[in-house]
Automatic annotation (TrEMBL):
The keyword Ion transport does not apply. One of its GO terms (molecular function) is O-methyltransferase activity. It comes from Parasponia andersonii. This is O-methyltransferase COMT-type. PANTHER family: O-METHYLTRANSFERASE. PROSITE patterns: SAM_OMT_II.
Length: 209
C-alpha cells in the first residue's frame, strides 16, 4: 500500500510502502519534471540540451552584468558582457550556434507534441505556414508531418538555415534566410511565433540577449 509523503523536493517524490512488513519503508523516484532531463527519455521529452545550454558561460554571462547594464546604454545585458549581441555571437561561433539550435530543437519537440495534439484545430484549413525564427525546422517539420496539405516554411537568420536548404528536410519544408526586423516575412496563411508563446521567455530574450 503506497502513501505519498508531503513537502518533498520538486525533483524527487517520496513514497512510503508496506510489502507485507510491519514497518513501512520509503522509496524515492523522479518527478515528471526531472524526467525531462533523462537521456533515455522519449524524443519529445528530451529537454537536457535546453537545460545544459543555459549553464554555458555565454548564457550565464548576462546575469553577472545586470547591474552594469542598467547604468549604460547597451541594448542587452549580453552585449554588456560580451561586447556584441547574442545573435552576432551565434553567427561568429558555429559550435555555440550548434548547441543553441539543439537546445531550441529539444524545446520545440515537446511544444510541437502538445500543440498538435491539444490544439490541432488551429492548423486545420491552412494551406501554408511560416515559422518565424524556426531554427532547424523541428516545429515546422512536425506540422508538415501532421498536416501534409500545409506548405511549411522556416524563416530564420541566414547562418541558421544556410546548411539546411539542401538537406533531406528541404523535401518537407522550405528554408528561407532573412532578418525578421529588416526583411519581409514570406507570405502565408499563418505565421508561427513559437518563442512568444511564453511571455516570460520573450522578456528574458529581449532583456538578456
Amino acid at each position: 500500500m503506497f502513501t505519498l509523503a508531503s513537502s518533498q523536493p520538486k525533483w524527487l517524490t517520496k513514497a512510503n510502502y508496506n510489502m507485507n512488513k510491519s514497518t513501512p519503508e520509503s522509496a524515492y523516484s523522479l518527478t515528471n519534471t526531472t524526467r525531462l532531463l533523462l537521456s533515455e527519455a522519449p524524443a519529445f521529452m528530451k529537454m537536457k540540451p535546453l537545460f545544459l545550454f543555459h549553464l554555458l558561460p555565454e548564457a550565464m554571462a548576462p546575469w553577472h552584468t545586470l547591474s552594469t547594464w542598467l547604468k549604460n546604454g547597451d541594448i542587452s545585458a549580453f552585449e554588456t558582457a560580451k561586447g556584441r549581441t547574442f545573435w552576432d555571437c551565434l553567427a561568429d561561433e558555429p559550435s555555440l550556434s550548434h548547441i543553441f539550435n539543439k537546445a531550441m530543437a529539444s524545446d520545440s519537440q515537446l511544444i510541437a507534441k502538445v500543440t498538435l495534439e491539444e490544439y490541432k484545430e488551429v492548423f486545420e484549413g491552412l494551406t501554408s505556414l511560416v515559422d518565424v525564427g524556426g531554427g532547424t525546422g523541428t516545429m515546422a517539420k512536425a506540422v508538415a508531418n501532421k498536416f501534409p496539405n500545409v506548405t511549411c516554411t522556416v524563416f530564420d537568420l541566414p547562418h541558421v538555415v544556410s546548411d539546411l536548404q539542401g538537406s533531406s528536410d528541404a523535401d518537407l519544408i522550405t528554408f528561407i534566410g532573412g532578418n525578421v526586423f529588416s526583411d519581409p516575412i514570406p507570405p502565408a496563411d499563418a505565421i508561427l511565433l513559437k518563442v512568444y508563446i511564453y511571455m516570460l521567455r520573450c522578456i528574458y530574450y529581449v532583456v538578456l540577449y
